[in-house]
């Protein structure tokens, strides 16, 4: 399972959304005292839709952890992606 979080400012404070559309003006917009330099994503494979969504938002491949864990009795692999902010 993957999720994409969008952090926005509102009059009542900071909140996150999990529903985003390609072309949004700001996918990741931290507005706090901590500087975020790099966003990372780990996606269990196969999941072509999630990989395509992350690529649309500017994430690039870093590497694959091949068969590193078991889920429902089968080995799984994960693609790791990153995006500099």
Question: What would you say this structure looks like, in words?
Answer:
The protein is mainly beta and 85 residues long. The protein has one domain (6-84): Gcn5-related N-acetyltransferase (GNAT) (Aminopeptidase, 3-Layer(aba) Sandwich), CATH 3.40.630. Helices cover 11% and strands 48% of the residues. It has one helix and five strands, in the order βββαββ. The protein has one helix at residues 48-56, and strands at residues 6-10, 13-17, 38-45, 60-71, 74-84. The strands form two sheets. It has a three-stranded antiparallel sheet with strand order 3-5-4, with helices on one face. It has a two-stranded antiparallel sheet with strand order 1-2. A hairpin with a 2-residue loop joins strand 4 and strand 5 (74-84). It is elongated. The chain starts with 5 loop residues before the first strand and ends with a strand. Residues 15-25 have low confidence and may be disordered.
In terms of topology, how is this protein built?
Blueprint: E1 6-10, E2 13-17, E3 38-45, H1 48-56, E4 60-71, E5 74-84
